Structures are given as C-alpha cells and as structure tokens.
Amino acid sequence: MNAEQESVAQRLLDESVISRQQLAEVKAYRSLGIFSLHHELQMLLYASVLLFTAGAGILIYENIDTIGHTAILVLLLLLCAGSYYFCFKKSTGFHREEVDFDHPAYQYLVLLATILGTTFIGYWQYQYASFGSYHEVPTLLSAALAFASAYYFDNRSALTIGTTALAAAVGITATPQTVLDNDFLGHPALLFSGIILGILLVGWTEYSQRTALKKHFALVFLTFAQHLLGICCVAGLIEGFWPVYAIVLAAATFYFYKKSHAIDALSLFVFALVYAYIGWNILMFKAIDFIGLNFFSELLILAAPLYFIGSITLFVFAIKRFNKKNDDRLR
Fold it and tell me: Which residues cross the membrane (predicted)?
C-alpha cells in the first residue's frame, strides 16, 4: 500500500472500524498489485458502439446508390429489432430503483439499439417525409423511444439521447433555422422555450426523487436543465427583457447551488458559479453603461486584472470548501 492507503487503513483500525486481522488481510491483498480493468473495458465497449454506428453510417453514405434507401431502412430496422430482442431477453424488467443486467455489455447493446432506432426514425422522415414539414414529430418519437429504453432498461446513455432529442424538438418547434445555426440571440421564443424545458426537467427531477422513480437519473436531468437555463438566461441578458432573465438566472443559481450540496455533485456547483459569474459581469457592465461611469474607464481597465485574479482565487476557494464540506459530511 502507498502512504495514503496506509494512513487510511491505520485510521480505520484506530477507530475500531476494522480489526488487526482485517488490516493484515487488506495489506496482503494490496501487496499483490492487482488492479481492475472494469472501467477500461467499459470505455472500449462504448467506443465500439460509437465506431460501429459511425462506420455503418459512412458505409451507407458512400454506397447509397448501390444499396438503396429501402434496403438501408430494412437493415436498420432488423438490427434495431435484433438488439432490442436480446435486451428484453436478458432484462429483469422495469423497476423503480436502480437495476442492472447480469453482464454490463448489455447496457451498451441498449445504447446501440437506441441509436439504431432513432437513426431509423430520422432516416424514414428524411427519405419519405411521412410527417411532412412537422420535423418535430420524428424528433419527439426518437425522444420517446430513448426515454422508454432508458427507464425500462435503466440506461443513462439512452436517457441522454432522449433528453437531447427533446431539447432539439423544442428548438425545432420554435425556430428551425436558429437551431441549425446555434443562434440564440435575437430569438426570444427560443430562449423562453429553453427556459421552460429546463424548468420542466427540474420539476420532473423533483417529482422522481419524491416518488422514488429512478432517483439516480437526477444528475443527468439536472445537468441538462442547468445548461439550458444558464445558456438561455445569459443570452437573454443581452435582450430587451433582461430583468426577467436575471431573476430566472438568480433563482436557478440558488437552486443548483443547494442541489449540488444535497446530491454531492461538483459539476452542478461549478457551473452554478460559472453561469452566475457570467451573468453578474453582464449586469455590472449594463449598470456602468446606464449610470454613465465611462470616465472611470481607465481605472476600470487597471483594476480588471485584480478583479479577475480575485475571482479565480475565490472560485478555487469555493471548490475546495465544497469538497471539504462534503468530505466532512461523509465521515
């Protein structure tokens, strides 16, 4: 064992958490130098799914004239159906709490099935335009398929796909061109749509935690909600109705700050500070411009380095304090 592990093991012995015999067994096990390849194998499985779907897409694109659209759709449907068949065969069914397959490889089969299914829906709409100009319909169907896969098979990757598809559907419903261009500025309807979706995701998360419905999905939903609310509010601070966005951003910052401590999520804490900091600076420049302190411009330029250095110092201090507080709570 290294020095840190030795110190932890000795502290556990001093606190009577483990016996001397157990300490000796731990030291003997550590001396073998055994390490786990679990995460490495999972990463390779994840990469294999992505490479397979990307390779299939490139192969189809380069041979589209030879293969034909109908043959591609049939192939996608067969692969998707086959993947779901094995997933259902090995699944234990729907459970409100966290469950897993007997073998972790089937989680990546669920991911593959979800990607193939959403690709089939999108390709069908692109080729045959079954839903006409209502592009949000196939996107919502893709989201429904991904959410069903996520909740039935308890798969976070499928949940991420479903949430992304849902956000895309909201964007397409508001203004399709702005979604394609990733341009939020000048489109209040899209900003409000993003804020509403973020609030709905927060509401669903709170409902799920109170009813014990896949509570471990909370971080995925909250991450999407935080970025939706943060980006839309920051972009909205430049618009004419900036006080509304400022209020929403302040409320979101407070909520995610408290939630990050409640579920011990450092990512939520960090981005709560980041979005709040960006919003604060935008409002500060607005106030300076409104009051007319332009004659202090030279002083502000000189003070800017100190301001940013101080901000970075406080940011690092806040993260250390967050980690220390949660470590003390776990003890």
Answer: 43-61, 67-87, 108-126, 132-152, 159-179, 185-205, 217-237, 243-258, 265-283, 295-319
